[in-house]
UniProtKB/TrEMBL annotation:
PANTHER family attached to this UniProt entry: HTH-TYPE TRANSCRIPTIONAL REGULATOR BETI, HTH-TYPE TRANSCRIPTIONAL REGULATOR RUTR
Domain of life of the organism encoding this protein: Bacteria
Gene Ontology molecular function terms on file: DNA-binding transcription factor activity; transcription cis-regulatory region binding
Source species of the chain: Haloactinopolyspora alba
Protein name: TetR family transcriptional regulator
SUPFAM superfamilies tied to this protein: Homeodomain-like, Tetracyclin repressor-like, C-terminal domain
Domain HTH tetR-type: 12-71
Pfam families the record matches: TetR_N
DNA-binding region(s) in UniProt: 34-53
Keywords from the UniProt entry: DNA-binding, Transcription, Transcription regulation
């Protein structure tokens, strides 16, 4: 089989402009913003847009895959820096907040992708966060009975800013501090059981498709 050709540089540049424009337009006007408006904001013709994304679902799929890639990059950077388990969790939460406008994910209301690539990306994020938690338990910085799903759920909450109210960056950093303080101690009392795991989440996604 011949090797697959890499996308032309201009085609990839168009793709990145379209994804950036879609993120900006959907954040500003909602996810039902006309696709022609996204094309215009990206500076490309409608024909160019539809050649890349024949419908809104195709665009949302690419936005979700892009979001997983961005989170993967944050996790990789944290791993390269080292530090305590609690520091790693803080880095992930702060990094996710910094790209909150680009996170088109199932826990943000996007339809869950069940492709092999998407499921593998979610499992990778879950596995790396579990490694951070285990590291924190080993170095004594994390004592609370939490798992990666708890971290991911909290991330989903703090990366969806309120439409109105005080400065969200400040509010989110306060919530992160409260959450980290809970991880560093025995955690809040009365946590309902049993714990929700990655398998539970994937099964719930499967029921929605």
């Amino acid at each position: 089989m011949p090797a697959q050709r890499k996308p032309r540089r201009d085609a990839e540049a168009n793709r990145q402009r379209l994804l950036a424009a879609a993120s900006s337009a959907m954040l500003r006007e909602g996810r039902n913003v006309p696709l022609a408006d996204i094309a215009a904001e990206a500076g490309v013709g409608v024909g160019t847009f539809y050649r890349r994304y024949p419908d809104r679902d195709a665009l949302m799929r690419d936005l979700e895959h892009r979001a997983y890639g961005l989170l993967d990059g944050i996790l990789g950077d944290i791993e390269s820096r080292g530090g305590s388990g609690l520091d790693a969790i803080e880095g992930y939460l702060v990094g996710a907040c910094a790209i909150s406008d680009q996170l088109f994910l199932p826990l943000h209301g996007a339809p869950p992708l069940m492709t092999e690539e998407a499921v593998a990306a979610r499992r990778s994020i879950n596995r790396r966060l579990e490694t951070f938690i285990e590291s924190g338990r080993g170095d004594g910085t994390i004592r609370a009975a939490v798992n990666a799903t708890d971290i991911i759920t909290f991330t989903a909450l703090i990366t969806q800013p309120l439409s109105y109210g005080p400065d969200w960056n400040h509010m989110a950093r306060r919530q992160i501090a409260v959450f980290l303080n809970g991880l560093a101690t025995d955690g809040p009392t009365g946590i309902p059981g049993p714990a929700v795991g990655a398998t539970d989440v994937e099964e719930a996604f499967q029921r929605r498709v």
